[in-house]
Amino acid sequence: MATKNNKVKSASDLDLKDRLVAINRVTKVTKGGRTFTFAAIVVVGNENGIVGWGLGKANEVQAAIAKGVEAAKKNIIKVPVHKGTIPHEQAAKFGGSRVILKPASHGTGVKAGGAMRAVLESVGVTDVLCKSKGSSNPHNLVKATIAALGEMRSPAQVAQNRGVSLETVFNG
Questions:
Q1: Going by fewer Cβ within 10 Å, which terminus of the chain is more open, N or C?
Q2: Residue 117 gets which letter from DSSP?
Q3: For 88-127, how does the pLDDT look when each residue is reduced to its tens digit (9 = 90+)?
Q4: Backbone angles phi, psi at 4, to 5 degrees
Q5: CB within 8 Å of 115: residues ≥ 6 apart
């Protein structure tokens, strides 16, 4: 889960772009026939270290997406992005989904599947290697990916926690 220092205070002043990850049509059989509703999982981000996810449910697809975007704006975290990649390797689990994120050299690209790709592109990561194991449910993959990103620590945070200089963190 996201740590307290990674939470963002307000989403109103950020320039967020939304991405639809998955849409699910749900059918309810009633006395009058079938009723269709839609559930949309949406990821928002400014492609500069800010990302959030939301789930919207409504009778119309567009309304479900709009509700998902509003929910995503309330659930935003800040992720340290270092030279287009993540600062260190990180693994996370949510439900039956497990994800592993590894930093990659410049020019590698985003090597990730659908739901993970949407999250990583929204946060602004351009070079990363990812692996998902277990369930491929997009809801759980998005939540696991955001949990992994929320646990990321920047080199400055590591240096501060250890009580050493930034050069010592890199040089050992």
A1: C
A2: H
A3: 899 999 999 999 999 999 999 999 988 999 999 999 999 9
A4: -65, -35
A5: 21, 22, 138, 141, 142, 145
